[in-house]
UniProtKB/TrEMBL annotation:
Name of this protein: Peptide/nickel transport system permease protein
Pfam families documented for this protein: BPD_transp_1, OppC_N
GO cellular component terms, semicolon-separated: plasma membrane
GO biological process, one term: transmembrane transport
Family named by the database record: Belongs to the binding-protein-dependent transport system permease family.
InterPro entries: BP-dependent_transpt_permease (IPR050366), MetI-like (IPR000515), MetI-like_sf (IPR035906), OppC_N (IPR025966)
Broad class of where this protein is predominantly found: membrane
Residue ranges crossing the lipid bilayer per the database entry: 21-44, 161-187, 194-216, 222-241, 272-294, 328-352
Recorded topology in the membrane: Multi-pass membrane protein
Length: 360
């Protein structure tokens, strides 16, 4: 294989990338986050759909908070792909303060009510027994949000949103940007002028404003945001690809290919594009980070992923007011998650830029 050749550009670039500590560390971090996103429902304490189990009696608790309680018996879940979409009928955890077992029933006080008289009762037939025990202790490692939901579970499942928006947006931007940029740079003339007019018009509109406009046209929702972000990120890709094609289409090997009678499509995508792909890879890493930030901003504004889907931006929106009441971690934790993932992709992009620079 070509890339195994120790004198190939791919091999040399890979060796330079491996010597970049921050680039390799960021790549490992992104891989770990990707694995966490794939296995989110398996490793999350709350594996219900969107980790949306609420317990208002334990809302806004600090990291490491522990509560005792019981699990209500859930309806049998027939969904064999729960590890991908979550359990639609997972056992609900009910926090309690005091309890007593009597006459095949569980008498208890809801968490926060410490009176000696029990105000709630539930038949034991409706209580789920785990490990031969009815009462369990639940640890909330990152605390609970304002609705009493497990913050760690929602953070883990929310990573799917950020990574998905990055992959889909970058794919759409590459598909449109490479196609238009290649056509404009290769054919030139009026075709180039028409495409450049479209690029300049799109470029002149603020990205966030354009995303909001497209989102309002397509409607609020999960996939609508993906498409909207992707449709606004192709411009830079198209400009770079166009410039690469203009500089490469007059090379000797391209002239030789034309002389041999090769078609335009073959010349463009088999001979020019492989030699113009290096800067596109770098831009893609930066676009991945930008897509995460844009989605977070849209969710913060309320037009991104809609509740109860756990988006990191929406988590900040729900809790930014808690910063002034001594519970800043509710907004800081998802903020740090966004910052770390964006920084990782930016560092990967910088490392790829250095590795693919033939002059270095």
């Amino acid at each position: 294989m070509v890339w195994l050749n120790k004198h190939s550009q791919t091999y040399l670039a890979l060796q330079k990338f491996k010597r970049n500590f921050w680039g390799v560390s960021s790549f490992v971090y992104v891989v770990l986050i990707s694995l966490v996103a794939i296995l989110a429902y398996i490793i999350a304490p709350d594996n219900s759909v969107n980790a949306n189990q609420m317990a208002l009696s334990i809302h806004s608790k600090p990291p490491g908070f522990k509560a005792k309680g019981f699990y209500k018996t859930a309806v049998v879940n027939e969904n064999s792909t729960w590890f991908l979409t979550g359990k639609s009928a997972s056992a609900e955890f009910v926090p309690i303060e005091n309890y007593q077992l009597k006459n095949d029933s569980l008498f208890y006080n809801t968490y926060g009510i410490s009176q000696t008289k029990f105000d709630q009762v539930i038949p034991l037939s409706e209580v789920s027994s785990k490990n031969n025990s009815i009462i369990h202790k639940q640890t909330y490692w990152l605390g609970t949000d304002k609705y009493g939901r497990d913050l760690l579970s929602r953070l883990l499942i929310g990573s799917r949103i950020s990574l998905s928006i990055g992959f889909v947006a970058v794919f759409i931007s590459l598909l449109i940007g490479i196609s238009l940029g290649a056509i404009a740079g290769y054919f030139g003339g009026k075709v180039d002028q028409a495409i450049m007019w479209l690029i300049n018009v799109t470029w002149s509109i603020p990205t966030l404003l354009l995303v909001i406009a497209i989102t309002l046209v397509l409607g609020k929702g999960f996939w609508q945001v993906f498409i909207a972000v992707g449709l606004t990120m192709w411009v830079e890709v198209a400009r770079v690809v166009r410039g690469q094609f203009i500089s490469l289409k007059n090379e000797q090997y391209i002239i030789a290919a034309k002389t041999l009678g090769l078609g335009h499509r073959s010349i463009m995508f088999k001979h020019i594009l492989p030699n113009a792909i290096a800067p596109v890879i770098v831009i893609s890493a930066a676009n991945f980070a930008a897509a995460i930030l844009i989605e977070s901003g849209l969710s913060f504004l309320g037009i991104g992923a809609q509740p109860p889907i756990p988006s990191w931006g929406a988590m900040i929106k729900d809790h930014y007011s808690y910063i002034i009441v001594g519970k800043a971690y509710l907004a800081i934790i998802p903020g740090l998650a966004i910052m770390s993932l964006v920084m990782a992709f930016m560092l990967i992009g910088n490392a790829l830029r250095d590795a693919l620079d033939v002059k270095s």
